[in-house]
Design a protein that fits this description.
single chain, Immunoglobulin-like, transferase, 3 helices, cell shape, 27 strands, acyltransferase, mainly beta, five-stranded mixed β-sheet, L,D-transpeptidase catalytic domain-like, four-stranded antiparallel β-sheet
Length: 395
């Protein structure tokens, strides 16, 4: 059979279609399987300082970072295997310590992370921190486990002037239950006090974490204190001494429980006005006027039921040398608040003995209507006489 031009053209088209179809089928993977996706990039963990580093700063240098993945665990161990707490960023790509490191100490960092495919990697490094040129000590005024009055102020003293006052202040970590804002205030460069805006709520549980170890308080001078303490705020007791009326009222948990006659400072030696906190209790103690600026006017070896209210020598105490008619009728002291008492501190029925037995460290005694200034906030634990907007200002 003869084929013309049209038949030849149809045959050519069929050949082209068949060839194209065959080429497409050849490129398709057998069984319709998909090609594997490329592998995720390998995780890279960076530790600063580098392994083997020495003279590392106690703050601001240690950090861990991750590229092409996230950190899943970072452990830093120091002296005696203690772990350094730290903070992992929300995106998991960095970690930093939450406190200063110790001086002249070896630390080991172990960082674990994974990439997008879940492949895990680990990196370690060891380094040693800088040696301190000198150290400073820190002392505080509240015993671990103590129960204190609502006026208690946490006070720290340092044996050398502090230059980086913000760093040292921030290294004292205070938490409370219930929660309350507690702030620090520096008096000079060697005393740091902490209190809330108002008196503590009774029953408040306070935890203090001293993290001053490794803090550079002055160039080359580092702190050593690393300790935790707790204390509890007991019942509320606030006593108001009216120097003009020569009476004091004791109010406990909002209710008046007793009013007692007193003698306060004589016209030439008035008692400070203001809120004062009981910081010491002595069943008996010696009071020598020469130690507080008087020229031998008195030296009493056995003052009973004495409780300190100021560093400068103000006490509320028992008085056995004045006649009973003095109390409530005459201000005759050298600046203290006196209550009727018996010599020897052995009579529990006297007003002074009763007040002594019913007071604890941290209770408040506020003096009003005295012919004197308000006591300075750093004369004793008397920061309650400073306005809250000034407490800690400029630090």
């Amino acid at each position: 059979m003869r084929t013309g031009p049209v038949g030849a053209l149809i045959g050519l088209l069929l050949l082209v279609v068949t060839a194209c179809t065959g080429s497409s089928q050849a490129e398709e993977p057998e069984g319709g399987e998909e090609r594997p996706s490329p592998s995720a990039a390998a995780l890279e963990i960076a530790i600063t300082p580098e392994d083997g580093a020495t003279g590392v700063a106690t703050a601001g240098e240690l950090r861990v970072g991750a590229t092409n993945g996230t950190l899943t665990a970072v452990t830093v161990t120091g002296p005696e295997g203690a772990e350094v707490p730290g903070e992992l960023a929300e995106d998991g790509t960095s970690w930093e310590p939450a406190e200063h490191l110790a001086n002249a100490a070896e630390y080991t960092v172990t960082a674990v992370g994974e990439n997008a495919d879940g492949e895990e990697s680990t990196k370690t490094a060891t380094f040693t921190t800088v040696v301190a040129d000198a150290t400073f000590t820190s002392n505080w005024n509240i015993a671990d486990g103590a129960t204190v009055g609502v006026g208690m102020v946490l006070s720290l003293t340092f044996d050398t002037p502090i230059e980086d006052i913000s760093a040292v202040r921030d290294a004292v970590r205070i938490t409370t239950e219930p929660e309350v804002d507690v702030r620090g205030h520096w008096f000079g460069t060697q005393r740091l006090d902490f209190r809330p805006e108002e008196y503590w709520e009774p029953g408040t549980e306070v935890t203090v974490g001293f993290r001053i170890r490794g803090v550079e308080g002055a160039p080359g001078v580092y702190g050593t204190l690393y300790e935790d303490i707790t204390f509890t705020v007991g019942r509320s007791q606030v006593t108001t001494v009216d120097a003009e009326a020569m009476r004091m009222e004791v109010v406990r948990d909002g209710e008046s429980i007793r009013t007692l006659p007193v003698t306060t400072g004589a016209p030439g030696t008035p008692t400070w006005n203001g809120k004062m906190v009981i910081t010491e209790k002595h069943k008996e103690t010696r009071m020598d006027g020469a130690t507080v600026g008087f020229g031998g006017e008195y030296d009493i070896p056995d003052v009973p039921h004495a409780m300190r209210l100021s560093t400068s020598g103000t006490f509320i105490h028992g008085n056995y040398w004045a006649s009973g008619s003095t109390f409530g009728n005459e201000n005759a002291s050298h600046g203290c608040v006196g209550l009727e008492d018996e010599r020897g501190a052995g009579d529990s029925s006297t007003p002074a003995a009763w007040f002594y037995d019913n007071s604890i460290i941290g209770d408040v005694v506020e003096v009003i209507n005295s012919d004197d200034d308000v006591i300075a906030p750093d004369n004793g634990l008397n920061g309650w006489n400073m306005a809250w907007d000034q407490w800690g200002a400029g630090q």
